[in-house]
Design brief:
Elements: H1 2-40, E1 52-57, E2 61-66, E3 72-76, E4 80-81, H2 84-96, E5 99-104, E6 120-126, E7 129-138, E8 144-149, E9 155-161, H3 170-173, E10 188-192, E11 197-205, E12 208-217, E13 221-222, H4 225-236, E14 242-244, H5 247-256, E15 262-268, E16 271-279, E17 287-290, E18 297-300, E19 328-335, E20 338-345, E21 348-351, H6 361-373, E22 378-381, E23 397-403, E24 408-418, E25 421-426, E26 429-436, H7 446-449
Antiparallel strand pairs: 1-2, 1-6, 2-3, 3-4, 5-9, 6-7, 7-8, 8-9, 10-11, 10-15, 11-12, 12-13, 14-18, 15-16, 16-17, 17-18, 19-20, 19-23, 20-21, 22-26, 23-24, 24-25, 25-26
């Protein structure tokens, strides 16, 4: 009986202790933890609720506001689109930053902490709440900033890094994109240089727009989709290095710049996005882009111009032959007095006239792919006149392609070889070009054409 009473008494004690811990001790600890975390916070609200931020430095005052779509705009000292990512970086740093310790309860000697003349004063507004944070000098041991809030008199040592705040300027918070479009939505591209007008249209299929492009001006033909893709990427990612805002400065600059190097108009649906490029003839680093009269003149990297085409040849599909491998039914190769013809059926190649002999399929596939994909390297003439000058009146090698419907569509003629290049004409491009001369040594030999084995 005594043992039972002892056990019951211990159970009641443990139950009471559990109730005490659950109802009093744990909530107290949790409350103290919350209070400790709140005491460490630099700002009393979530940074995502901030709708206005004003930063006053020793050089300038910048005020930004946020709309209901979380887009930031600069309203002082100029009106401009804000770089939301840069604004959010500052706000997030303030949210993550903590109070390491309170240096002084009362304001005494602010100059000792660089707070008599703060490097930055940040005013934040979130609904009906606000806070102002002054950022002073750098603590010698921790390398973090001293700070003071307007809502109390404490001088604080924070975990804020000087690199997050010291070099922030008006330029930091400005949106630096020159153009605003989605390259996947582009339907037409117009390029105007001093020597040529170019128009490209996106190729459509029954399933919608594709990644392929065609010229409609100055000629009709395929464009190199990789080159067009790089052009659109360059324009979409165009970034300002400086802004020229004042109308008087813009007019003075335009007076000393030469005529534009290139004007690009990008059409997306019913909207056109235009940009014009200028470069000083004396100072290459002075490269500028202009969109519309009401926007700034943007100073850009001179390297940008290297990726912009000024001639159709820059973005043409430079393959000379004019056919795809899958389209070829017959391929005839003539080298002086020697000629052979191969036929393609279901992806296999056969020597015309000797269907019972097998061809080295791997080598033939490799040769035909080289013919089909041979690109022009240099443009020599826009017409096919005076072919004798290039050794093309009686070419060293001539290759003809007939499609599966019996239409002669592919053509490649190779003439005089010169310094690693060979003069060439083809049905894929108008005019005379130079291509890599390695193709001259890649014609299949008799051993490759047939192996002497019946199919």
């Amino acid at each position: 009986m005594t043992s039972y009473r002892t056990t019951l008494l211990l159970a009641m004690i443990f139950a009471g202790l559990g109730v005490y811990l659950y109802t009093i001790e744990v909530p107290t600890i949790e409350q103290e933890t919350v209070q400790h975390e709140e005491a460490q916070r630099l700002i009393p609200f979530d940074y995502r609720d901030v709708t206005e931020m004003k930063i006053t430095s020793r050089k300038e005052t910048i005020r930004l506001t946020r709309d209901n779509r979380r887009r930031w705009s600069i309203v002082e000292p100029i009106k401009a689109k804000g770089d939301s990512r840069e604004v959010e970086n500052v706000l997030r740093a303030l949210e993550i930053g903590k109070v390491s310790r309170v240096i002084q309860e009362e304001e005494k000697d602010l100059s000792e902490y660089g707070l008599d003349s703060p490097n930055s004063i940040i005013q934040l507004t979130a609904g009906n709440q606000s806070e102002t944070l002054s950022l002073g000098g750098v603590a010698p041991l921790t390398g973090t900033l001293y700070a003071k809030r307007e809502s109390d008199t404490h001088i604080l040592l924070t975990t804020l890094s000087v690199t997050d705040f010291r070099k922030k300027s008006l330029f930091t918070f400005r949106h630096k994109d020159v153009m605003f479009f989605d390259r996947n939505m582009v339907e037409r591209i117009q390029l105007n240089s001093p020597t040529q007008h170019i128009t490209l249209d996106r190729v459509a299929s029954i399933h919608g727009a594709t990644g392929n492009w065609r010229f409609s001006e100055p000629f009709e033909g395929p464009a190199d989709k990789t080159s067009v893709g790089l052009l659109l990427m360059t324009l979409e990612d165009l970034t300002a290095l400086e802004f020229i805002d004042q109308q008087s400065e813009k007019e003075t600059l335009l007076q000393r710049l030469p005529p534009p190097l290139l004007t690009a108009t990008i059409h997306t649906g019913q909207r056109a996005h235009l940009v014009t490029f200028f470069q000083s003839p004396k100072q290459a680093e002075e490269t500028y882009a202009i969109t519309t009269a009401d926007r700034p003149i943007y100073k850009i990297s001179p390297a940008t111009l290297k990726g912009l085409p000024t001639q159709a040849f820059d973005i043409q599909d430079k393959r000379l032959f004019g056919m795809e491998m899958a389209e070829i039914g017959l391929l005839t190769v003539t080298m002086g007095s020697e000629t052979f013809t191969v036929a393609q059926q279901h992806g296999e190649w056969y020597l015309d006239g000797s269907p019972n002999l097998s061809i080295d399929q791997r080598e033939m596939q490799l040769f035909v792919s080289r013919v089909v994909d041979l690109p022009a390297e240099l443009a020599m003439s826009s017409t096919k006149e005076h072919l004798g000058e290039y050794g093309l009146a009686s070419p060293a090698i001539e290759i003809m392609g007939v499609d599966t419907r019996g239409r002669a569509r592919g053509h490649l003629a190779l003439g005089t070889r010169e310094k690693g290049l060979v003069y060439a004409v083809g049905s894929g491009l108008p005019g005379v070009y130079q291509a890599r001369s390695a193709i001259l040594t890649q014609i299949p030999t008799n051993e490759i054409l047939w192996q002497g084995k019946p199919n």
